[in-house]
Amino acid sequence: MNVRPSIALELISSSASVLFANGHTTHRMIQDIRSLGSALGYKVNTHTAWSQVTIRAEPIESVAATGGALQSMVEIVEVMPAGVDMNKVSRTLKLIDQVREGVLAPETAVQELKTIAAMTSVSNSRFIIMAGLGAAALAIIFGATDALTLLLTLLVACLGAGLRRLLAKHARNVFSQPLAAAFVAGGMGAIIQKYQLCSSVQYIEICPCMILVPGAHIISGSIDVARGRIELGVARLGYSGLTILMICLGLIAGLTIGGESLAPMVSVNKVPLGVDVIAAGVAVAAFGTFFALPWTAIWIPVLIGMSAHAIRWGVMDAGNGVVMGAAIACCFTGLVATPLAHKFKLPFAALAFASVVSMMPGVFLFKISSALYTIYEQGEKSGALLLASVAANLMTSTLICLAIAFGLIVPKLTIDRYFYKEL
């Protein structure tokens, strides 16, 4: 393909920017960009860092033989992988395939990429409503059954989602949205707790915060570390950790200003399998919305997530613990989501996390943060039981995170290695 060097470089760098910024896993992004460069007549090397992607394109011999440019080209693209938009990734990958197949001219592809990059996410109404439904679904999975608890959880999550959308237009700091939404959950929870409007207050405080957890970035960072991209992987995990810290700070700040602490968990009845699986499907659909997955494709993670949750439920019902249940369910998810991510051109991390969101140990993390604040307030008067609670919750959340990470990543790396040839 004889393409002007400037057009080739612009198409390559723009594609890399859109994919990197919107949740495509690093390894697949590099492979897709290399494939695009090869189709345009260039050997492309890509170096990724947290805040930029460096593209180096060198013409191959076939280009030189037809009068192409002989000099190599270098472009540094300033971009951060802080977003997740499955629709943009899918559209960009389809565009790359069209260029490779000769269906779409590179000049036209450049213009279409600008349109894709400028696309807005899902509508505010869909985002807010699905945030409320997702939080309520998680409350059902955790054991809430009374209508008042579910309604209040939905309303608090909707308020937080509305504030997130407002801040997205006016605040540039990436941590402001989770901090503010968690503060709303803490403040509203404190009010409900103070006036005893509901007995199951902890669900109302925690579940709207659970939908803020940056699981897709945790998975992407873990994959980067597993593939040896330590610098970028640690940066992704650091970003995820800071986001979780902001969520915890917002929740505790809201509760503290309201004069309350995290409400104790009330005893609940075990949720039946059918209800549990349906609730998991609703939670998955909510995260599909957060990740801008079109309605026409939402069934993919929903079916994976419902099946994985049924497997987890069965493993735990057989007498195994929550860690073993998460590990086996996530292994199934990794085996199924990897080929589907390739087939439907979706970012694996977002697809996988949306499918296993209900297994994330957010509850334990919020309990840890609340207990630590109580220890700070009580000082030396803190009892051994409180310290033991922190240690137990910390160990549980760590083991669940490891189970999820290994359960998803090992099948993915294995399938990629043996079934999807690297270029």
In words, what does this structure look like?
The structure is a single chain. By secondary structure, this protein is mainly alpha-helical. The chain has 2 domains: 5-81; 124-419, no CATH class. It is built from 17 helices and 3 strands. It has helices at 5-21, 26-40, 61-65, 86-100, 106-117, 124-142, 147-170, 176-194, 201-210, 215-226, 230-257, 273-290, 299-317, 322-343, 348-356, 362-378, 384-419; strands spanning 42-48, 52-59, 73-78.
Helix percent reads over 70%
Mean pLDDT: 91
CA distance, first residue to last residue: 18 Å
Structural class: mainly alpha
Helix count, DSSP H or I runs of 4 or more residues = 17
Number of domains: 2
Largest sheet: 3 strands, antiparallel
Question: Uncertain segments of ≥5 residues (pLDDT<50)?
Answer: none
Shape: elongated
Main sheet strand line-up = 1-2-3
Radius of gyration: 23 Å
* SSE run: HHEEHEHHHHHHHHHHHHHH
Tally of strands: 3
Strand content: under 5%
Q: How does the SSE layout of this entry go?
A:
Elements: H1 5-21, H2 26-40, E1 42-48, E2 52-59, H3 61-65, E3 73-78, H4 86-100, H5 106-117, H6 124-142, H7 147-170, H8 176-194, H9 201-210, H10 215-226, H11 230-257, H12 273-290, H13 299-317, H14 322-343, H15 348-356, H16 362-378, H17 384-419
Antiparallel strand pairs: 1-2, 2-3
Helix pairs in contact: 1-2, 1-5, 2-4, 4-5, 6-7, 6-9, 6-12, 7-8, 7-9, 8-9, 8-11, 10-11, 10-15, 11-16, 12-13, 12-15, 13-14, 13-15, 14-15, 14-17, 16-17
